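Sample A.
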Amino acid sequence: MAMRVLLAGKPDERFVAAARAAGLVLCTERPDVVVSVGGDGAFIGAERSLPGVPKLGIRSDDSCLKCVRHTDAEMLTALAQSRLAETVLLKLEARMGDTTLRAVNDVMVRNADLRAAVRFRVSLDGQRVTDEIIGDGLVIATPFGSSAYFRSITGVTIRTGIGIACNNCTDNQAHLVVGEDEVIGIEIVRGPAVLAADNDPALQQLLSGAALTVRRASTGARVLGAEALRCADCRYINAPRRRF
């Protein structure tokens, strides 16, 4: 039976034709696989809309220099022939009261008023590990997401664990890397602040006294073709930045 594929992002007519030529059946519901066409944002948005469904992220041949093994046509054919290995990426889950947000890249707490810093404390598994921190907020990142905002703050990426980086803090708080099973607690001593997950446009307001936890989600993101990201012969989805 032919594979049912939903194209997310911004596939052009050429890409659609290549998918059909590879023998894929294009659909708008109940897909076997989601192919996100575009950058990281397209992939993250597809995972938020259809969690649990395997994803293949592809940048267009027009915007990404690739070797012959990883052209659009080759990747789509490999998908149709079930030749792409699956990798499960760690996801984060942020909980505040009845609100739950999930992220592939990162969870962010940021001062809502750009004129005023936010004051907060951090705990691990219920034990406080920082004094009151004053700054713009913090970023909690997965290994996959650590090449984004986390890296811009710390200058490093991580391969395992969960990264915690404080943003523009008065005491130059060092970043932390904690185990994947640890529960990170954040207490807002003085707000207002906002809570965001990945590129989700829905921001959650955090007032003084608000508390939230961030932990590993019970299920991860299923990604196909991750081996292409390690290819030394092409710039497939900014290969050096994403590590599995």
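Sample B, a different protein:
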Amino acid sequence: MLSARRLGALALVGALSTGALQAVTPAPALAAGPADHVNYWNEVLTQTFRETSDIGPGPLARSAAIMYVSMYDAANSVLCAQRAADCLGQPYALQVGGGGDFNSAVDYAAHDALTGVFGGLGFNFDDELATAQSDIADSAAKTAGRSVGQQTAAAVLQRRASDHSSDPVAAYTPDDVPGAWRPASPNGPVVNPNWGNVTPFVMTSGAQFRPPLPGGATSYAELLASPEYAEQFNEVKTYGSVNSTVRTADQRQAAFFWANDVNGTYKPPGQLLQHTEIVANAQGVPVTSKVKLFAQVAVGLADAAILAWDRKFLGSVDLWRPDMAIHQAAGDGNADTEADPSWQPLSVDRQGNHFSPPFPAFVSGHATFAYTWAHVMAHWFGRDDITYTGTTDDPNAAGVQRTFTSFSAAADEDAHSRLWLGVHWHFDADSSLNPGNELGEFAVDNTMYYNHSDDELLYLHKTGVTNRNECNNTGRQLSNEHRWEFWRCAYSNNRTTYDLYVH
């Protein structure tokens, strides 16, 4: 198809060739599209999260992973076609040959992936695609990029078609003993009790990194009788109460900053994706690398949900939330806990109702997401101590921004904010640390991993670069991104600048 600009040029040539003196209306300029197509689709994704209702964090994290690995495979296909040294890494599901326009490949992959996940809920992403493509003139490269994106999204969606995420959910039957979580008004229905059975994106199973119960307990009675439980019971009773007098103003702000539990927010996975964008922008990550960063983060978050829900519902204990525990402490068998039927958590919905999320407490989904995210981010940037300022969607923290001096500091605050909100025990957060770190490491080591070449490839030559450290830093970053495992810096032929080789 000929572009508007090309048609205008042909009309002008025709008028001049016939000697006709007639005005030729210039073709309208193409509208401005997004400056960064990865950021653009991240905003589309998180806005979609806001517009969904009563969908748990597991399905939302799954949708993000499907979109981002589709975009990654599309981007990787285009870059590999340019030059072997430019490959982002091994494909997740599919590498398409032939090349094409990078942005078009990313746009169509995102559009088709989101349509595949959310189309059945009435969402349509055609307008968002049109906006993304608005300043890309028709060309063979655009057509090829479209085909690449459509093929990678189809391959990822096909891979996830039988992942058990849509299996019928049997009625949840609570364990009929003290300590067992059960649905209670105003908590609403049970959310995704089968999610631990969903096929992971990279883990071998949802139980791969399943943490043990606190203190080595093996049953409800053993856990509730422990001194550790009594200590944490009284801690959350004091710090997590709506009318707490010991919780600080900063802890209260942090509790709501990380909450994002209610409809209309981008939920916990969306907040961490937004923080990823903030960090990537501040650190100047180019769009070609950013697509892989988001893909690795999203895969980690998707599997973090499966890990957490495996522990919540499929272990030996489906642990009650603090509100239920404090209301019913008279029957918990622990002399160091005291019931308070009027106790309410700080957590509150848009209607002013104090609530706990409708699934068991142990382990914390927020904490599992956060520790997995922090490990992937620290691996990607080669260090943990990067300062950034994050944002929130929670209506009780409107406009609040908080600054963190490291990814792990942000994760720790996210995890323990749930205690100050009154919806989790301390060990719900602490028991997520090692599994989150292990999952983060496993995710970056076992998917979208390094390229391999028997021969060294010239990755970069920079005229005038005389500092070997700059060359090594570039090579080290390629390794952090799992693009190339080995690199070598060598003098170029002029013996004054460095060449970077990868293999």
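Observation for Sample B: The CA atoms of residues 450 and 482 lie 5 Å apart.
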